[in-house]
Design brief:
The structure is a homodimer of 208-residue chains.
Chain A (H helix, E strand, L loop, with lengths): L8 H19 L4 E2 L1 H8 L3 H9 L11 E2 H11 L6 E6 L3 H7 L2 H5 L2 E8 L8 E2 L2 E5 L3 H7 L4 E4 L3 H13 L4 E4 L12 E4 L2 H10 L4
Parallel strand pairs in A: 3-4, 3-7, 4-6, 7-8, 8-9
Antiparallel strand pairs in A: 1-2, 5-6
Helix pairs in contact in A: 1-4, 2-3
The first copy, chain A, binds a DNA duplex (22 and 22 nucleotides) through α3.
Chain lengths: 208, 208
DNA sequence: TCTTGTGAAACGCTTCACAGCA
DNA sequence: TGCTGTGAAGCGTTTCACAAGA
């Protein structure tokens, strides 16, 4: 199976959207689908879907379509979503604790196994099965628990230093909720979730 | 000033990133910058920045660069961020209440003025200055309060019906935290924030 | 000399259109 | 006949390279 090289980033993101939609179709009992039916549901061009799939292999049957269950498995494998990922969370404020309480993440294969904060009033608190630990121990604990991914949910002021600490702990990628640019080496992957920026995208298109 | 027509979506998103970075530069006391210095800070090509700006006008001085404060004002006006936007929040669970408690939003010009839920145990609760209202009154209250934008923070199961209700209430755009595709008319704008999908983007690039 | 603003070239993604199969 | 898989065309974005101006 082809992977990564020469696959546009846009294709990969759509693959995630296809998988999400296919999970729905499967739950609704739809055992097969065509590029046309999926395209209609997602408001897009069927050729786009076929082209996206074609980067990774041939999954359909000409004249018939695709088998939903089989495609779900293929997509999970392609996207590395056929296993459980262990995450560290840094910053147990509003957003951080919302993530800890969110059962959807575990259902999708993402388990937060470590939670850190720098505020002494939060250290030691239990949230679900986890105890909030002191952020000074990040490096040691992440290595002990063999965690590869992290979520930065600290205030902007601490985001860069947190990222630096995580990189020292050999974290290979993180999700960042702090609305600021972080300087990190090229080989580290960062996916930002910037809520004010998302609201900015929304209002740009509003007539005033 | 040119606006919207012929401006690539990518350009608009980068404009938001420029503004975010310029706010930082201004706070650090940097009164001017060049496309080169900004490009270096953001890890990008300076020609890209100049081209992006050029869609909206000429903001710099040849041989000199740009004035930080002036550019911040220009960008705010271009992006419709030179005013306060009033929002309704639907779903006061983990994520919803984290948003209500997040002071960053108001600082950036986004004020949540209405909060709704369908769970009787949450209706009537006070969070900060707001009281959680019954979602059955969404339409009336949104019109009374003249709110144009909404945040959907409900579970996936209620997301589509919530969107339908909001559209009936003449909401023109929304941010959606529910990780699912929503069917909405073309003229309504939706910006999704899908946390499991963001984690998916992250792990695709991990070697296993 | 330095940096902006911008046509034009280069590049990459999307869409088309049709051959290949069931 | 119906739908997939795909080379090639079409199209939009990025980057280059340089004229213009401080």
């Amino acid at each position: 199976m082809v992977k990564h090289m020469d696959v546009p980033e846009e294709t990969m993101q759509r693959m995630l959207a296809y998988l999400r939609e296919l999970d729905c179709l499967w739950n609704e009992g739809k055992e097969k689908f065509s590029s046309q039916s999926l395209a209609k549901a997602l408001h897009m061009n069927p050729a786009q879907i076929r082209k996206d799939f074609s980067y990774f292999g041939e999954f359909g049957t000409r004249g018939v379509g695709y088998a939903t269950k089989q495609l779900i498995q293929e997509l999970r494998a392609i996207l590395n979503l056929d296993r459980t990922w262990r995450l560290a969370l840094i910053g147990v404020g509003n957003i951080g604790s919302a993530l800890l309480r969110n059962p959807e993440l575990k259902r999708q294969g993402f388990e937060i196994v470590l939670a850190f904060d720098k505020d002494p009033r939060r250290i030691g608190n239990k949230i679900g099965p986890l105890t909030v630990e002191d952020v000074v121990n990040v490096k040691r604990r992440i290595r002990e628990e063999k965690v590869q991914l992290a979520i930065i949910a600290t205030p902007v002021e601490c985001a860069q230093e947190t990222a630096d600490k995580l990189i020292q702990a050999d974290i290979k990628g993180f999700l960042c909720f702090a609305p600021c640019h972080l300087s990190i080496p090229d080989e580290i992957r960062i996916v930002p979730i910037d809520i004010p920026m998302a609201l900015g995208k929304l209002v740009y298109h509003m007539e005033v």
